[in-house]
Structure prediction request, 325 residues.
Amino acid sequence: MYLITGVILQKTPFAKEIRLKMQKNLPDSIDATLEMLNGGGYVADRALATVLYLSLKMGRPLFLEGEAGVGKTEIAKVLSSALNRPLIRLQCYEGLDISSAVYEWNYAAQMVQIRMREASGQVNRDAMEDDVFSEKFLIRRPLLQALEQVDGRAPILLIDELDRTDEAFEAYLLEILSDFQVTIPELGTIKAKEPPIVIITTNRTREIHDALKRRCLYHWVDYPDVARELQIVQNKVPGISAELSKEIVAYVQKLRNQDLFKNPGVAETLDWATALIELDKLALDPQTVSDTLGVLLKYQDDIAKIEADAGTQILKEVKQELASA
Ligand SMILES: Nc1ncnc2c1ncn2[C@@H]1O[C@H](COP(=O)(O)OP(=O)(O)OP(=O)(O)O)[C@@H](O)[C@H]1O
Ligand SMILES: [Mg+2]
Prediction:
């Protein structure tokens, strides 16, 4: 079983006017890029919009690094929806190899074809070879799929969590990102008519080689500030009250200053907001916070640390600050 997702056509709702405006052209300014991201429900700061605008304009891959759950993958999804291009996702993992990432031959189908030819007496070796090593028997994996246009448009290629692969694969990727072509010994070289838009993400569990980074534009995706996180929660958790969302965001922002083993990302903030709505809560209270910490924190040491005393203190501060705001 492969952990690779192929072509995904994004169906996220997207304002029709923005989609139409974006259909043929890429955004023509930083403001238009910001508008495009906002239109897709992505709350971005100007620095991200600038680097994304430049990467689209300059045709360079965008290298997004950041902690877990800060919205790196989401950028590629929103881009796919906004630009109306298919998203091809290569989910990286340890041991990822070319046959899973680029192409492989369909051996079973080739064997059947050989047997059928033998049975019908057609055993010309050259003809047989040409036949079984034709495109019909080629299984295209994401990096090869990404070289092909869909409906006349180059796709978005998301190379997700690159830090999980090994250096050998990284070196191979470097080659693909330089020429946007793949050589298949039995078939020849396949070159992209138009290079895909490439987004690479990493959680920095290991450093990615400089040679690869140099071909990309780099952006560190940080945790959002209070205002942006509040906007994300209000956009993504329908029906949440202003008071509860402010308390949730203030609490999570303070948690991120507690020197935890793993800070909660935006994904956890959204999960917590959804969980509290499910529990019909209108405001935070110590018992509810303690009972639902497992939605925010995923390490027992972190949970124990917050439950012990910091959690109550944080809640007091949040209530006081919001009351005096
Ligand atoms: N700026 C943002 N605007 C809107 N939604 C956001 C934003 N940042 C994060 N999210 C939401 O947070 C969730 C997590 O985002 P995403 O999966 O892209 O994170 P990630 O950085 O790729 O995490 P990981 O490293 O674990 O893969 C998604 O539901 C996404 O919609
Ligand atoms: Mg991700």
Remarks:
- Residues 19 and 82 are 5 Å apart (CA to CA).
- Residues 41-44, 66, 68-74, 201, 203, 224, 232, 236, 266-267, 270 surround adenosine-5'-triphosphate (ligand 1) (CB under 6 Å).
- The longest strand covers residues 197-202.
